[in-house]
Automatic annotation (TrEMBL):
The keyword DNA-binding applies. PANTHER family: ATP-DEPENDENT DNA HELICASE HOMOLOG RECG, CHLOROPLASTIC (PTHR47964). The lineage of its organism: Bacteria, Bacillati, Actinomycetota, Actinomycetes, Micrococcales. GO terms for molecular function: ATP binding; DNA binding; DNA helicase activity; hydrolase activity. GO terms for biological process: DNA repair. Keywords: ATP-binding, DNA damage, DNA repair, DNA-binding, Helicase, Hydrolase, Nucleotide-binding. Residues 304-477 form the Helicase ATP-binding domain. It comes from the Bacteria. This is Probable DNA 3'-5' helicase RecG. Residues 540-687 form the Helicase C-terminal domain. Pfam families: DEAD, Helicase_C, RecG_dom3_C, RecG_wedge.
Amino acid sequence: MNEQIARGTRHDPAFANIGKGRLDQSLEKELGPKTGKALGKLGLRTVEDLLRHYPRRYGDRGRLTALAELRTGEHVTVIARVAGNDLRAMRNRSGAILTVRITDGTEELTLTFFGKHRGSLEYHERRLRPGATGMFTGTVSLYRGARQLTHPDYDTFDDLDDEFEAVQKVDWPIPIYPASSAIASWRIGKAVQTLMATIEASDVPEALPAAYRKEHRLPDVLTALRRVHEPHSPEDWRGAHKRFRHEEAFVLQTALAQRRAVSLAEATTARPPRAGGVRDAFDARLPFELTAGQQEVAAVLERELATSVPMMRLLQGEVGSGKTVVAVRGMLQVVDAGGQAALLAPTEVLAQQHYRSITDLLGPLAEAGMLGGAEHATRVVLLTGSMSAAARRKALALAASGAAGIVIGTHALLSEIVQIPDLGLVVVDEQHRFGVEQRDALRAKGRTTPHLLVMTATPIPRTVAMTSFGDLETSTLRELPAGRAGITTTIVPANKPHWVGRTWERVREEIDSGGRAYVVCPRITAGEDAGAAEDGFSDDVTAELFGLEDERAPRRPLASVEEVSALLRETPALDGVAIGQMHGQLPTEAKDAAMADFASGRTPVLVSTTVIEVGVDVPEATVMVILDADRFGLSQLHQLRGRIGRGTRPGLCLAVTAADPATPTGERLLAFAATTDGFELAETDLRLRREGDVLGASQSGRSSSLRLLRVLTDAPIIEAARSAARDLVARDPELTTEPGLAQMVAESIDEDAAAYLERT
Ligand code: ADP
Ligand code: MG
């Protein structure tokens, strides 16, 4: 049915918005203001919202819900049998009370109803007679030690309209919807059924091409909606779920494929390498050999930069695997070809660090026009939000005149005042902090579309890369440069004073033998709000990414930079050791000074927030103590740990925590201690938490359109959808043959844009 419509309307713009009218109708209009308002409280406003509000799970009339698992305060929907009831007058005041005991066969739960008099409760008493089964919903409370639901909403199964229906439906799975106290699950179910009765195939866009559905044996969209909302068997809803997973993957992959196609079609200036130029001079200066992995990636960059098709590449690699060096070579190739390159970093500390290490690596090659500058030299400038007006003016002038071959900065680079006229390559470091729109804002500065290299040290499982960065090709640096001595990680129980004491002794030993120590705290000052933004970027990104909200340890005072530095100054083991401080709220000069003092060894202990998480490079740092380690996500811990063991001496990471090893948090820390392989940790991390969060936080509001797709377990679906979507877009870039898909892609992009606007 749907295919016919699609075929019949091919190339006909009048039908481009097929069916959208009905789906956009408001629920208040369709179902009446009362139901509509109640659904609105769940965020459901349009017909489409409700149709896509899939049941959370399915109940079985024959199988009662395990009541022992209910937690106080939770809003629950349970299937249970009435064990007994008791209707009586209240002793101390006027009115009557009906208590109903419901059971799953072992545990009981009490339902309590209050009424003005017995008569007002008799209706419930009749429906809830012993032996009746039904669904009950309400918020679990505790009364005299017993769990109860007060005035629960309920629906008994023998209330079904007629006997025939009852017999027929007895085996059907019961949809249990994400509900709230505003509207019970079965009322949502009834609302959905009312709608479904009037929905036709032409009302709902079919996103999946017919051939694709056939190949993967997927029902069409209307059939799938029926089966998800009113399944006659578990196979029904399972088949529908499979279809919706494919649909979500296909829509997303099509959007990414189109994005990629549009980018690839843009004209880019080819930046071929030039023999004897600044890049060759840089290679000659490098104090080490590139690893085999670096050489491989370098060759790919050299080739891709040399063409007029824009490079769109993600370079991922372990912390310290040498991505930056490879990126600098690419930037210098562009400079050799007469262009400019920009490096976008997520924090000021990191931008400054890049500036310092790149100017160090370049030496006289970064001193064009200066005394002692080399023959092919260029200039490197830094642009951050906190620079003085004079310094900024100078940097802006160098960037705008083209004299600066390399422009490094934070999001300040995105400002319209910044001109980089011959921008040929944009390098984005630590991508997960930036949105697609931000990298595009920077790329828009070039006369022609610049090449793009995105670097991330957060190892990304393959399917996540395909989903979040599906418009990019991926390169991976797996090996670390030789001579790294490795890192050992130990969990230190915070409640064992002896262990904690030993921690500071170990720090002392490292310092006495020339090492440096980071001490990481979750907070800056005592009592301040946790998760305060550092350098304008919210650390909540990480919290979101790793679903920390759910399993954070019970609130207790957290270690803060200020308190801990004061304490360490009093710690006998660290007697005479100078202790520095670092956090995002320090003025730039203070940050610079703190890093410089730490690097030079003047303050061999640096107490810091996670502001050092990304990219900070002090090779002498050998030990890191992470306080309240349970407060951090796996990837964040991994990033932090990557700050040590960067030189030739082995690193030691001591993760101090009060978390019980038997909890999910404890498990996360054990996984952290067990391996330094970031890819393994990323996979573990996905397994330990709800995966949906990964995509949501990685770029934009996409999670809203990914309801059922699971990046870890649905890898085959994502791969199938990706390859089919790329083929389709290559054949039919405008999707004229698939109007339903075109419509859904357009909507998903609108959602992204809306999510972006909300964030900025
Ligand atoms: P990443 O950006 O991947 O974290 P960097 O490029 O900052 O890694 O490199 C980390 C450190 O290793 C730097 O001090 C860099 O100079 C050094 N380094 C990079 N490549 C090599 C190599 N092939 N051999 C030895 N040291 C290297
Ligand atoms: Mg780096």
